[in-house]
From TrEMBL:
This protein's name: PolC-type DNA polymerase III
Species of provenance: Sporosarcina soli
Domain Exonuclease residue range list: 26-197
Pfam families assigned: RNase_T
Organism placement in taxonomy: Bacteria, Bacillati, Bacillota, Bacilli, Bacillales
InterPro entries named in the record: Ribonucl_H (IPR013520), RNaseH-like_sf (IPR012337), RNaseH_sf (IPR036397)
Length: 220
């Protein structure tokens, strides 16, 4: 019989009113790198990156750590990310690293996660915690892809760099957790500014976009 799962002693699920203005929310943009896509099976977490957004400004408050997945990094992942075995051999365990990420979020009382395909990053954290019999309550989260598809419904499945060029935002080192988190943070802020011009200004408005309950807008 499986034992009861434990919870990490951090607060991530802050209550928030639906009429709260987007600009008044504290966000954490997250990104992860892994040894592959078979999360929960043979692959594991090797890097976490995060950046804090306050008052719709990308701050200098960032988080980055390598993670030791207790397995070797495949050659093609090293080639893609430049993360080598030496970077992870003495890095924190997944449980320790995720705990550090959550403490970072708690420090700034972040009420919402942001990510580019954020569901994957959440799955990675969930599976790594599950291996240690831990769980957590996922905070309010938004995916930049949902916002992009609302503003630009005809856009193809492009690379993060392509979206940065499309919306005129900064790009940072690709396929590294902090670099991708920074690129996503700047993209998110620009997307929100464009949405505000279309009277998308509150948490409720963002949730309607997330849930597909709004009419598609025309990209400008």
């Amino acid at each position: 019989m499986f034992g009861k799962k434990k919870r990490l002693n951090v607060q991530l699920d802050y209550a928030i009113r639906l009429d709260t203005r987007i600009q008044d929310i504290s966000f954490t943009v997250i990104d992860t790198e892994t040894t592959g896509f078979a999360i929960g099976a043979k692959d594991g977490l090797i890097e976490i990156g995060a950046v804090h957004i306050e008052q719709l400004e990308v701050t200098d408050n960032t988080f980055q750590t390598f993670v030791n997945p207790a397995r070797s990094i495949p050659h093609h992942i090293t080639k893609l990310t430049s993360i080598e075995q030496v970077h992870i051999d003495y890095a924190p365990s997944p449980l320790e690293a995720i705990g550090q990420l959550f403490e970072f979020m708690e420090t700034y009382q972040s009420v919402s996660w942001i990510g580019h395909h954020v569901g994957f990053d959440q799955l990675v954290l969930k599976k790594e915690l599950a291996r240690e019999k831990y769980t957590y309550k996922v905070p309010l989260s938004f995916d930049t892809m949902d916002l992009i598809h609302y503003l630009h419904p005809t856009s193809d499945q492009l690379d993060l760099d392509d979206y940065a060029r499309l919306f005129g935002t900064k790009s940072f080192q690709r396929h590294r957790a902090l670099g991708d988190a920074l690129s996503t943070a700047h993209l998110f802020v620009e997307l929100i500014k464009r949405l505000e011009k279309k009277n998308i200004t509150t948490v409720s408005d963002l949730l309607r976009i997330k849930n597909g309950n709004v009419n598609k807008a025309i990209f400008i």
